[in-house]
TrEMBL record:
Swiss-Prot/TrEMBL keywords: Signal
Record's protein name: Outer membrane protein assembly factor BamE
Residues making up the signal peptide according to the UniProt record: 1-19
Protein's organism: Aggregatimonas sangjinii
Length: 150
């Protein structure tokens, strides 16, 4: 019985460090649009707002990594900071798509790593980054009427 209690205690203490899936910390939004329609809206947004395009020299390209990839990766430059925001979209059904915010990276320093949302930020800073993403990206995509919040 002592072993069971000990194992249970360890599981509870460390369970927050184990998360399922490839992007366990991402903040996800459900969008009532097909994946194709959402991808087209995002592409149009980037065409009409080039200040949101990451510098080409950084090599961040939108799209799937392979044909079998489930995620359509998208990168946005935060026009307020030297920062890239990493996101993805994934088909949930014929009429619904998941739009996920994964993290940020400071591109003024080439050695910085991605800071993951809901993991690498303190709670208050995490909320600020999420709010900024929602204000400068989501609100400008004209999808609010199709969006189910985080």
């Amino acid at each position: 019985m002592k072993n069971f209690a000990f194992v249970l205690l360890l599981t509870l203490l460390f369970s927050c460090d184990f998360a399922p899936g490839s992007y366990p910390y991402a903040t996800k939004y459900e969008i009532s649009l097909s994946e194709t329609e959402l991808a087209e809206r995002i592409a149009d947004f980037k065409t009409n707002n080039p200040e949101y395009l990451p510098p080409q020299a950084l090599g961040f390209e939108d799209g799937r990594r392979t044909e079998a990839d489930h995620w359509y990766h998208l990168y946005f430059k935060n026009p307020k900071e030297n920062q890239v925001m990493k996101t993805w979209i994934r088909k949930k059904s014929e009429t619904k798509t998941t739009f996920a915010f994964i993290g940020t990276k400071d591109y003024s320093n080439t050695t910085t790593k991605w800071k993951l949302i809901n993991k690498d930020y303190e709670h208050s800073e995490n909320e600020e980054v999420l709010k900024e993403f929602e204000e400068i990206i989501l609100s400008r995509l004209d999808i609010q009427q199709h969006m189910k919040g985080r």
